[in-house]
Design brief:
Layout: E1 3-9, E2 14-20, E3 25-26, E4 34-42, E5 45-47, H1 63-75, E6 78-83, E7 102-105, E8 110-111, E9 122-123, H2 129-140, E10 142-146, H3 158-170, E11 174-179, H4 182-191, E12 195-198, H5 207-212, E13 216-218, H6 221-233, H7 241-259, H8 276-286, H9 290-295, H10 299-304, E14 318-321, E15 337-340, E16 343-347
């Protein structure tokens, strides 16, 4: 079956009429094509920071849970994900199964000895980190390093992160770095990594440098705000003042990053899966223009992953809404249709 969608396509808002020729869009009319949906068209949503296949810290990777999580993403209009860290090696169908999103992953987290979550990731000596990260990136395209963990821990030295980034880049890969402290964020920027995950407590003075170096920021803002809410429910004596201050400052930091030209990627890092709309709304509430908040979860995030938008020859993904979601981000909760790999996998009656 050849399917067809038409309407105003974002980001430009111009009218398009597209046909799915297998897993590629074309504007060449097909006489027996089935019109699946008409409305406002996005080239699919992206969750750029999600860890499907587990629901609790330290839990072992579960293939059935993985499929359930990925299907929840599709229900929300997500047709591509990036998993910067997994609890185990994914099955062969990950990223290619016709009913689940396209996927990029970094394999297991790479952390320093004595740091990170018990049962997850690999602990790697500094001398071995560049080669281990490069080997992972050669397999999956990405590697993920935990640059900092607890406030009292030593961060991965700049020299080690720099060597790791260079080794990953030498094999054609990309390096994501977890950072929630100022020192780790500064080291990641100096090292020239490809993306900073979370970025709480980043020095605002580094934002121009981050933009100049083409480093993406995945602020996981909705998760940070939920964490702040939980922290504020505790008695004051049980709160970590530095963490509270960083979480309170995070929305302003994210808005300033957008203003400075930093590429933002929308990522949820949360359970339940399929809540990318929460992250887009959090970005907008922080002061990011709705157009740019949506870009971080759609066309710009797809471009970052190498996926063109709604143009001839592009992968045949789309999510369709009745109204322009930039004017009402709650529209993201109510897609008319989700098209994945040229197939209508979700269509609202």
């Amino acid at each position: 079956m050849v399917i067809r969608i038409r309407g105003r396509a974002l980001p430009h808002g111009e009218h398009v009429d597209l046909y799915a020729d297998g897993d590629r869009w074309t504007t060449e009319p097909v006489g027996d094509a089935v019109l699946v949906a008409e409305g406002w068209l996005l080239p699919g949503l992206v969750d750029a920071h999600t860890h499907p296949g587990v629901e609790e810290f330290g839990q072992r990777f579960d293939d059935d849970m993985l499929r359930d999580h990925l299907e929840r993403h599709v229900d929300a209009g997500v047709t591509a994900i990036r998993a910067p860290g997994l609890a185990g090696d994914p099955p062969d169908w990950f990223g290619t199964d016709p009913d689940t999103p396209r996927a990029w992953h970094a394999g297991p987290w790479l952390a320093q000895n004595g740091q990170f979550i018990d049962g997850w990731g690999r602990r790697v000596d500094h001398a071995d980190l560049p080669s281990v990260a490069a080997a992972q990136a050669a397999r999956s395209g990405w590697a993920k390093v935990v640059a900092d963990w607890r406030a009292e821990d030593e961060v991965v030295p700049v020299s080690v992160l720099t060597a790791t980034a260079e080794a990953v880049h030498a094999v054609g890969g990309r390096l994501a770095v977890h950072s929630q402290h100022a020192e780790g964020g500064a080291a990641a920027v100096e090292a020239g990594v490809d993306s900073i995950e979370h970025g709480t407590a980043l020095d605002p003075d580094l934002l121009t440098r981050i933009a100049e170096r083409g480093i993406a920021l995945t602020p996981t803002l909705s998760l940070a705000q939920a964490g702040l809410h939980r922290m504020l429910q505790r008695p004051e004596a049980d709160r970590n003042p530095a963490r509270v201050a960083a979480a309170r400052a995070h929305p302003g930091l994210v808005a300033a990053a957008a203003e400075a030209g930093v590429r933002l990627l929308a990522g949820t890092d949360s359970v339940p899966h399929g809540r990318i709309a929460d992250e887009v709304r959090a970005l907008a509430a922080a002061g990011v223009r709705p157009h740019d908040a949506l870009a971080a979860a759609s066309w710009d995030a797809r471009a970052y992953l190498g996926l063109p938008g709604l143009v001839p020859g592009a992968p045949a993904d789309a999510v369709v809404y009745a109204e322009d979601p930039r004017g009402d981000l709650d529209q993201l909760e109510h897609p008319i249709a989700v098209v994945l790999r040229g197939r209508p996998v979700r269509v609202r009656p």
